[in-house]
From TrEMBL:
Residues where Zn(2+) binds: H78, H237, D241
Pathway in which the depicted protein is active: Glycolipid biosynthesis; lipid IV(A) biosynthesis; lipid IV(A) from (3R)-3-hydroxytetradecanoyl-[acyl-carrier-protein] and UDP-N-acetyl-alpha-D-glucosamine: step 2/6
Entry-linked HAMAP family: LpxC
InterPro entries, alphabetized: Ribosomal_Su5_D2-typ_SF, UDP-acyl_GlcNac_deAcase, UDP-acyl_GlcNac_deAcase_C, UDP-acyl_N-AcGlcN_deAcase_N
Family membership: Belongs to the LpxC family.
One family name in Pfam for this protein: LpxC
Active site per database record: H264
Alphabetized GO MF terms: metal ion binding; UDP-3-O-acyl-N-acetylglucosamine deacetylase activity
Keywords, alphabetical: Hydrolase, Lipid A biosynthesis, Lipid biosynthesis, Lipid metabolism, Metal-binding, Zinc
Function: Catalyzes the hydrolysis of UDP-3-O-myristoyl-N-acetylglucosamine to form UDP-3-O-myristoylglucosamine and acetate, the committed step in lipid A biosynthesis.
Organism (species): Chitiniphilus eburneus
Name of this protein: UDP-3-O-acyl-N-acetylglucosamine deacetylase
Cross-referenced SUPFAM superfamilies: Ribosomal protein S5 domain 2-like
Length: 304
């Protein structure tokens, strides 16, 4: 049986919120079977915890933000991407601020946190969402799409007319049957232009942003010491974001995701469109590991 996963122990981290600049304490705790990924604001006594789901993503202007009864938890996509990459199904996430800590701007620190806690299998089958029909969302020249596929594949194209963005490095196709999430995706950092950071700060945002947690670009080049971690780090980070946004579904997808100039809003709208028609998908489990699509065979082992 291909089983659900949770943490072996509780783990904590402290960081800074990208937009608020506030100190944030994050606590990840083990959770029981079928609990899902549940967020709790510990700085708001009496506020109800809430389980991730596309309908709760009610702010996508700069990140994916969950909103329930005026309680917000923002910038969850990097953490959710790490959970997806490690195959975690059930986690209690506690945070004492309105957004996740940005860490280094990638999912790698969250991978390290989970590896520190350890992972255990649980006595229930993992539930997948298998896409049965093509589902597409368009907005002008931008689009995102899910297609039936016996595995999990992500293909994205970005389009920036800027000297720092090589044309050959703005498209990527990752098939997780042959590619490892931790080594090839998790370390890709978020990015932005220096004039955007300056504008956001004037409007009370990006107060925690720096070259320690983002790739910063001026009119001509990348300003960070050491440059890029991958030649195509920009589009790889968009893949990281998409994986996190899609995992807000609460279950791993068996599908091929593709997009052109996609973002958090379109990724969320795609999930809502998928769920709007039950003919688009089905829930499946695998009693025999040999029947699991190859994309999921190489989830990190439980010894991490």
């Amino acid at each position: 049986m291909f089983q659900q996963r949770t943490l072996k122990s509780t783990v904590r981290a402290v960081g800074v919120g990208l937009h608020s600049g506030d100190r944030v304490t994050l606590v990840l705790k083990p959770a029981p079977v079928d609990h899902g990924i549940v967020f709790r604001r510990t700085d708001l006594p009496g506020s109800a915890p809430f389980r991730v789901g596309p309908a709760l993503v009610n702010d996508t202007r700069l990140s994916s933000t969950l909103v329930q009864d005026d309680v917000r938890v923002g910038t969850i996509e990097h953490l959710m991407s790490a959970f997806a990459g490690l195959g975690l199904d059930n986690v209690e996430v506690e945070v004492d601020a309105q957004e996740m800590p940005i860490m280094d701007g990638s999912a790698a620190p969250f991978i390290f946190l989970v590896q520190s806690a350890g992972i255990v299998e649980q006595t229930a089958p993992k539930r997948f969402v298998r896409v049965l029909k093509p589902v597409e969302v368009r907005d002008g020249d931008k689009w995102v799409r899910l297609d039936p596929h016996d595995g999990y594949k992500v293909a994205l194209t970005i389009d920036f007319q800027h000297p720092a963005f090589k044309k050959s490095a703005q498209t990527v196709c990752i098939d997780f049957a042959t590619t490892n999430y931790i080594s090839e995706i998790a370390r890709a950092r978020t990015f932005g232009f220096i004039h955007e950071f300056e504008y956001m700060r004037m409007n009370g945002l990006a107060r925690g942003g720096s070259m320690d947690n983002a790739i910063v670009i001026d009119e001509y080049r990348v300003l960070n010491d050491g440059g890029l971690r991958f030649e195509d780090e920009f589009v790889r980070h968009k893949v990281l974001d998409a994986i996190g946004d899609l995992y807000i579904l609460g279950h791993p997808l068996i599908a091929a995701f593709s997009g052109y100039k996609s973002g958090h809003a379109m990724n969320n709208k795609l999930l809502r469109t998928l769920l709007a028609d039950e003919a688009n998908y089905e829930f499946v489990t695998f009693e025999d590991r040999d029947t699991v699509p190859s994309s999921f065979h190489d989830l990190p082992p439980l010894s991490i």
